Amino acid sequence: MTTLSQRDSKFSRLANAMTRTGYEDFLPQLAHELANILDVEYVMIARIADNDNVAETLAVSGRGKLLDNFSYPLTGTPCETIPEREPCQYQRGVAKQFPDDLLLADLGVESYFGMPIVTSDGRKIGLIGAMSTSATFMDTDNVEILRIAAAQVGSELELSSKKSHIQTLTYEDEVTGLPNRQQLREYLRHQNDVHTVLLVDLRRFKDINDLHSHSTGDTVLYAVADRLQSRIASRGFIARFSSDEFAIVPNPRWQASVEAMAAEIDQWFYEPINCGQHEFFLDICIGAAKRDPSPLPVNANELLRKASVALAEAKVANCKLMLFAEQMVESLKQRQRLFDRFLRALRDDKFSLHFQPQVALKDGAIVGAEALCRWYDEDLGWVSPAEFIPLAEERGLMPALGDWVLQAAVKQLKDWQAAGSPLPGPLSINISNKQLESSSFCQRVLELTQGIAPDALIFELTESAVMRSPETNIKQVNTLKDKGFRWAIDDFGTGYSSLSYLTRLRADVLKIDRSFVARVPGSQHDESLIKTIIAMANSMQMKLVAEGIEHPEQAQYLHRTGCEFGQGYYFSHPLPAEAFFEKIRKQ
């Protein structure tokens, strides 16, 4: 019979053991103390994995000593019979009742008491087993001691699991399973032998998300990560740096120049990524930074920053590899300054439209015009469209700029109409592929063109832009065509198009690219190309406009060959709205 003082002593010893909660030795010390309190030879604390029939010991006390941890199957053991919430007890003959449990026989165990370890939501995640070599009965106090101990262990394991999950979220990318940016930075901070950092960008990855789904995009990212890991193996550290960028930190096992590394990485993407019914041929560009020969210590995270700058330059230059150079920082600063000014101009309505006449080649009469966006900045002066259009596309602002152009063009058409000198023909407006990518593009066009007839406009789309996402673009184009709007294929002959796609596009106008016009008459090759384009346009009943006409000989040759319309400096430079209005008013 347990006296009151003995009972108090047991609970006091348990309380002392509990004070080690949170310390590394908490579970071993608890198992050791429980064996003493319960007066048994063996106590084990074990974890049971989810949907698993195996126990993994976290602490084992045996005959006064802490033993090594081990794993064992639960089937055919008394541990298997522990209920979800209540303890189980075998006072004697437990080894005979469970003959398949060789551990009981080896230890000479006669009695067994098991207490489940549960989480706050009632899931059993482990057990505490107390075993004795003699027949033993666990009284109420001992049961309560084990129950308190199991509750504390359950709380500790649950907290540890949450910490582990938080650690995973902090350092692991949930899509690819790779280390994330945070873990990459931690890795670089503790490395002393980093000589090179490479950042690999998946070009136009956004198209996959937009055309298919983000789920498909995630599958592609996972496949890319798996391909990179399998190829790099032990030669380097790899992490997902951002949405479509992967960082690679080679180690000394990868004996190659930066250029050779980049070429090898590029080869890995020659084969498509297969995702279900889809095949994706991915194009990449790489920004890299390497340690200079200086003997001074290198900051590996600084190499990462430089690789990021180099990658930005690679994207702008549209090249496979860009190795960091100091002047890139100044270039990046200038582009950021230009972008800041661009945002302000867009917000403050500082853009303007100029208009270049389109004429009939037979007599020079104006038959329409092309609207061209222009930007004058108080600090920068006139900024070329060749600078700010790619910037708008790179920073995702092309839809906003396109909306401004369309809105301003519609207003100008209405103003000329109200002034009594309407434009003698349609106004052509350039449409970026970035605008077509937007699911709301067609709706925006219908909203912004209210009050004018659809045939007052012709939307121009480059041949290469059509082929970027042909299925989506054809759908968008034909949706607006069904509403009465017309379409032109700009820069025709310079891209890599499919005649079947162009037929499905149902374009109304083909514009011969200025690069062909510049070499006629005189270039047999370009003359043949132009004749072929004219024949194709006639067979498809499409209007033909030649761009970039700068000399009378070009205009005369094109007219003789069968091209009816043209535009270029020979007829007029792009003009501000007021000057263009005077030109059409006097015609």
Describe the structure.
By secondary structure, this protein is of the alpha/beta class. It contains 22 helices and 24 strands. It has an eight-stranded mixed beta barrel with strand order 15-16-18-19-20-21-22-23, surrounded by six helices. Strands 1, 2, 3, 4, 5, 6 and 7 form a seven-stranded antiparallel sheet that branches. The longest helix is centred in the N-terminal third of the chain and has 32 residues, at 140-171. The protein starts with a helix and ends with a helix.
Short description:
The protein has 587 residues and is of the alpha/beta class. Helix content is 45%, strand content 22%.
How many β strands by DSSP?
Answer: 24
Instruction: Write down the overall mean pLDDT.
Output: 86
Give the N-terminus to C-terminus distance in angstroms: 120 Å
Structural class: alpha/beta
Radius of gyration: 38 Å
Number of helices: 22
- Overall shape: it is elongated
Largest sheet: 8 strands, mixed, barrel
Amount of helix: 40-55%
- Taking pLDDT < 50 over at least 5 consecutive residues as the criterion, the unreliable ranges are none
Strand order of the largest sheet: 15-16-18-19-20-21-22-23
Beta-strand percent range = 15-25%
